[in-house]
Design brief:
The structure holds 2 protein chains of 2 kinds. By secondary structure, chain A is an alpha+beta fold. Chain A contains 4 helices and 6 strands. Chain A has one domain: Jelly Rolls (Sandwich). Chain B has 8 helices and 16 strands. The chains are: A alpha+beta, B alpha/beta. Strand 4 (68-76) of chain A pairs antiparallel with strand 10 (188-189) of chain B.
Chain lengths: 153, 287
């Protein structure tokens, strides 16, 4: 079986994580590949996993009744995809579709939640890193909402 | 009664407030609300020389004047190129001009991007929306002297795929190995396969040496503030960051005070500023 430790260690999201924590993460990790057009998640479906993207590009989409699927963000190399696995009811909030052939490390959400419960230091590290991602995405969303390139009235 | 071309004698052209007549050579649509004008001197004489980042006051007779950045190649003075967004009465009037029509041009005014100062550095150009237009002369200039610079990265954010300026040129530049171009849009629908997200999200992914980078930013002020935050997070020193400010410019040469921003006149002391010089003013709610 392939040791995913080195891949996890070099992912920016896990930069600076201790070897012992990386070892714990390896136990919940698996290698995955998505072809162009594959859906990685569907809104409302159980969020059992999240992903450390190694290569490729994915689009986070929201279905609208009048305009069809709207792309609201793309996720690429070095990004982390998904935090719905962290909080009940553990369901995806968006569709995620592959735009380019994508390779990623899938993390089993339940497995990692259990490890975080057992090892609070690991839990704190994971929460700290996810909080950072969430804050960045919230700021980006606020900027998008402002429609800064739109005409001023 | 004398006509306009008789009034504008060469000695009068030295007067900063007098426009020189230019003829519209070409006018073409870039996107649904932006267009580019190519102008040539009406008297057939030499065109003005300019530096990347400078702007002209374009005058539609009987309508009014607007400050517009020069978006052409500084090493090719003719035609004189401006890219505009149709936002008010003057730009709307400019949009209706045809080849052969005449406009008044005053300039070039203002400070320039630090193209010479940046020699030896990596360059990060950050453009938001129509902000790509004032940065295009920088790209022309750099590409003409490409070996003098390290990595050159253009990060361009705009509203939607239909709002991407200079599509053909960007496509051509993207095929170069010595230029790293990343484009993102705020929203998109399929079949768009590029990036979706704010332009600042491209900064952490871009490849450059922060300590030896000169960054030039042009776009809405909010976009510039957030871009500066990301650049400094990456370790780019503040005095290596340059921004182009936009204010209500009227005279273009520091007489009228319309564009005053604290102790500075944006038309004369700017529009291009090194960030530390404008930092306190950018973060003030009211001046």
């Amino acid at each position: 079986m392939q040791d995913l430790g080195p891949y996890l260690k070099e992912h920016p999201f896990l930069s600076g994580m201790t070897d012992s924590h990386i070892d714990l993460l390896v136990g919940c990790a698996s290698n995955v590949k998505f072809d162009i057009g594959d859906f990685v998640s569907r809104e409302g479906q159980p969020a059992k996993q999240f992903y450390f993207v190694r290569h490729g590009k994915l689009a986070v989409e929201l279905q609208t009744h009048d305009r069809g699927p709207m792309m609201i963000q793309t996720i690429g190399e070095g990004d982390v995809l998904g935090w719905s696995w962290l909080f009940p009811p553990y369901v995806w909030h968006f569709d995620v579709k592959t735009v380019e052939l994508t390779r990623a490390i899938a993390m089993d959400g339940e497995c990692l939640r259990n490890k975080c419960e057992e090892d609070h230091e690991l839990g704190y590290e994971i929460m700290k890193r996810f909080s950072h991602v969430m804050v960045n995405r919230l700021s980006a969303t606020r900027l998008q909402l402002l429609d800064i390139y739109g005409k001023r009235k | 009664m004398a006509n306009a071309s008789e009034i504008l004698q060469p000695e009068a052209l030295s007067n900063e407030m007098l426009p020189r007549l230019y003829t519209v050579n070409k006018l073409y649509k870039d996107t649904h609300d932006t267009f580019t004008m190519e102008l040539v001197p009406a008297d057939g004489g030499p065109s003005m020389s300019f530096l990347p980042g400078q702007f002209n006051m374009l005058y539609v007779f009987g309508v009014g004047e607007v400050p517009i950045s020069i978006s052409g190649d500084p090493d090719r003075a003719i035609p004189l190129v401006h890219t505009l967004r149709e936002v008010g009465s003057v730009t709307s009037a400019l949009r209706t001009l045809k080849a052969g029509d005449t406009v008044g041009v005053r300039g070039p005014y203002g400070t320039a991007w630090p193209v010479d100062q940046a020699v030896g550095h990596d360059l990060v150009l950050l453009a938001g929306g129509i902000g790509l237009a004032p940065l295009r002369p920088v790209l022309y200039s750099i590409l003409f002297r490409r070996r003098k610079y390290g990595k050159v990265v253009l990060l361009f954010g705009t509203r939607s795929p239909g709002d991407i300026l200079y599509k053909k040129e960007l496509q051509k530049w993207r095929s170069r190995f010595d230029l790293d171009i990343h484009i993102t849009v705020d929203r998109a629908i399929r079949p768009w396969r590029g990036n979706v997200g704010v332009v600042t999200s491209l900064i952490p992914r871009a490849s450059f040496d922060p300590m030896h980078t000169t960054a030039m930013i042009c776009g809405p002020e909010i976009m510039m503030r957030f871009s500066i935050m990301e650049l400094t997070k990456r370790g780019v020193p503040e005095d290596h960051i340059w921004v182009s400010m936009e204010r209500n410019m009227k005279c273009g040469c520091g007489f009228c005070g319309h564009c005053q921003c604290g102790p500075l006149f944006v038309c004369k002391d700017g529009p291009v500023f090194v960030y530390p010089r404008i930092k306190d003013l950018m973060n003030k709610y009211e001046i």
